[in-house]
Amino acid sequence: MTGDTYRQLQPVEPFSLFSAKDIQLFQEGTHSRLYEKFGAHFLEYEGVKGTYFAVWAPNAAYVAVMGDFNGWSHYTHTLFPRWDNSGIWEGFIPKVGAGCLYKYFIRSHTGEELQKGDPFAHYWELRPKTASIAHGLQHQWKDKKWMERRAQHNSLQSPFSVYEVHLGSWRRPDPSNHEVFYSYTEIATMLVPYVKEMGFTHVELMPVMEHPFDGSWGYQGTGFYAPTSRYGTPQDFMRMIEAFHQEGIGVILDWVPSHFPYDAHGLFRFDGSHTYEYADMRKGYHPDWNSYIFNYGRNEVRSFLLSNALFWLDKFHIDGLRVDAVASMIHLNYSREVGQWEPNEQGGHENLEAISFLKHLNETIYQQFPDVQTIAEESTSFYGVSRPTFMGGLGFGMKWMMGWMNDTLAYFKRDPLHRKWHQNQLTFSSVYMFSENFMLPLSHDEVVHGKSPMIYKMPGDEWQKFANLRLMYGYMFTHPGTKLLFMGAEFAQTQEWNFKSELEWHLLKFAPHQGIQQFVKDINKLYRTEPALYIKQFEQDGFEWVSTADHDNSILAYLRKGTKREDTLLVVLNMTPVAHEHYLLGTNTAGTWKELFNSDDPVYYGSGVLNTSPLTTQKQPYNGKEYTLLLRLPPLGALIMKLQKQ
């Protein structure tokens, strides 16, 4: 085209991607695709290529785009405020393209001047630098097979065994240099085959959203719409997700809609006012994390968070969101003393705005992406976290079973001699195990801050520690509910997790660690292939106690059931180091049982107390049951028997 075909464009041209409907939904708190409007978008205007910028700054008197394309000038590229009082500033800047560094220069009504990163940026400079980078999300996805079939993989009637990973510290190029990382591409070549070999169905990534401080592990985010540049570009991240999907592994993201840090370039006091956070610090400040809480009562903030959840599902093909710190969101008195919080309008301690937001969030996610799951980290007895909203619930797919985790770890820390007095710590979960769709978590939170690694929570000598750990995992994988295990726990890491280093892979030279790793591989396979362990994992009739009365020997037995009689599994747990050669167990299920799995198998570093031949019940009343079964019970062992077809 000739140069005189078009007029000379201004430094910033009036232009908008927003329709009246967009503004309406934004202000109603129901816009779920704001990332298609806000941020930096490459387009052509009057024959000239450039970038459209849009930012929400309702208290600003002046907003400009400053960047490497204008010498970081505060005044050469001034955005236009919309006429509709939406608080949106926007404009098209000619000849600015992909890769440019930029921030928003904001002057508030009070005269305060701020330099802010773009809340909707898809890519950021590597910390400690803080500029946003104009970057598109074009990608030719190659996971069609997974996306077409993932409804089955992510179903609540399917096995869900999750490997929780912190990308920076799973492996490092130099374990002693925490400034150097593998790229998303390099991580994928190592992590994808490992997760597949270990038998996990899903991987959960600790927050990958851009964050300034490594020590926050990603939980203090500033770039909610950007995978961190520590490991590469958004497209590199997409290719890593693709690699998981091509191997049949789902990807869950840790998502943090509860709070954000006070870094100068982030969301805090974005336009000189409390834009994203509550103005009342009794609601707006989080004392535990020295961070600020989203204002769930402000509709534009609700649209920001709703769109953010949908963004990862839409643009990155994510299979689920594990929503962090839900308890802190829905309770006004969370970590607050009397006088530090104000009751809601009904006089209660619930944050009604956060509750209504979470309900709408889950309704929207399951409407638009019915083949994904949302998982709540919620530690209280709040009703119906994983129940549908039409039943009064919050609408999550699953909830972390924190009570089970606390009771189980407390029990296994005990000397086996004393366990007989505390059997209720294991049986109590059956009182409430079907009140929610529970996921059983042994997460990163249990192996930091002086809590010790899993193996050193176990009592006894080396052999007993490993036997106890296998026994606990055996209990976990046969207990109703889905599973989550933090990286390193699968081979008995001997140090607490340290985000600055990497896992202790050298331990796999030693037989006990090889044994526990093989155990996790095999029990994952068992969980995936035995319908009784997953098909009714959230249903009452998928579980039945067989024996809870043998306190003296600290032995428990229960059935896991599928849809067919021959699916039935018998699980027997011996919580002491005393083997039983002729243990009589009463049962009402007659038939022949075959040992499927034994945590004391020598291949796992066990002592080899096995049931090598099928065992048939005898018609003999015992402990109120019609039949008896004579078993060999391994020391500190988990035994899984399967009912044979008649």
Automatic annotation (TrEMBL):
<feature type="domain" description="Glycosyl hydrolase family 13 catalytic">
    <location>
        <begin position="164"/>
        <end position="544"/>
    </location>
</feature>
<feature type="active site" description="Proton donor">
    <location>
        <position position="377"/>
    </location>
</feature>
<comment type="subunit">
    <text>Monomer.</text>
</comment>
<feature type="active site" description="Nucleophile">
    <location>
        <position position="324"/>
    </location>
</feature>
<dbReference type="InterPro" id="IPR006047">
    <property type="entry name" value="GH13_cat_dom"/>
</dbReference>
<keyword id="KW-0808">Transferase</keyword>
<keyword id="KW-0321">Glycogen metabolism</keyword>
<dbReference type="Pfam" id="PF02806">
    <property type="entry name" value="Alpha-amylase_C"/>
</dbReference>
<dbReference type="Pfam" id="PF02922">
    <property type="entry name" value="CBM_48"/>
</dbReference>
<dbReference type="Pfam" id="PF00128">
    <property type="entry name" value="Alpha-amylase"/>
</dbReference>
<dbReference type="InterPro" id="IPR037439">
    <property type="entry name" value="Branching_enzy"/>
</dbReference>
<comment type="function">
    <text>Catalyzes the formation of the alpha-1,6-glucosidic linkages in glycogen by scission of a 1,4-alpha-linked oligosaccharide from growing alpha-1,4-glucan chains and the subsequent attachment of the oligosaccharide to the alpha-1,6 position.</text>
</comment>
<dbReference type="InterPro" id="IPR044143">
    <property type="entry name" value="GlgB_N_E_set_prok"/>
</dbReference>
<protein>
    <recommendedName>
        <fullName>1,4-alpha-glucan branching enzyme GlgB</fullName>
        <ecNumber>2.4.1.18</ecNumber>
    </recommendedName>
</protein>
<comment type="similarity">
    <text>Belongs to the glycosyl hydrolase 13 family. GlgB subfamily.</text>
</comment>
<keyword id="KW-0119">Carbohydrate metabolism</keyword>
<comment type="pathway">
    <text>Glycan biosynthesis; glycogen biosynthesis.</text>
</comment>
<dbReference type="InterPro" id="IPR004193">
    <property type="entry name" value="Glyco_hydro_13_N"/>
</dbReference>
<dbReference type="InterPro" id="IPR013783">
    <property type="entry name" value="Ig-like_fold"/>
</dbReference>
<dbReference type="InterPro" id="IPR006048">
    <property type="entry name" value="A-amylase/branching_C"/>
</dbReference>
<keyword id="KW-0328">Glycosyltransferase</keyword>
<dbReference type="InterPro" id="IPR014756">
    <property type="entry name" value="Ig_E-set"/>
</dbReference>
<dbReference type="InterPro" id="IPR006407">
    <property type="entry name" value="GlgB"/>
</dbReference>
<dbReference type="InterPro" id="IPR013780">
    <property type="entry name" value="Glyco_hydro_b"/>
</dbReference>
<keyword id="KW-0320">Glycogen biosynthesis</keyword>
<dbReference type="InterPro" id="IPR017853">
    <property type="entry name" value="GH"/>
</dbReference>
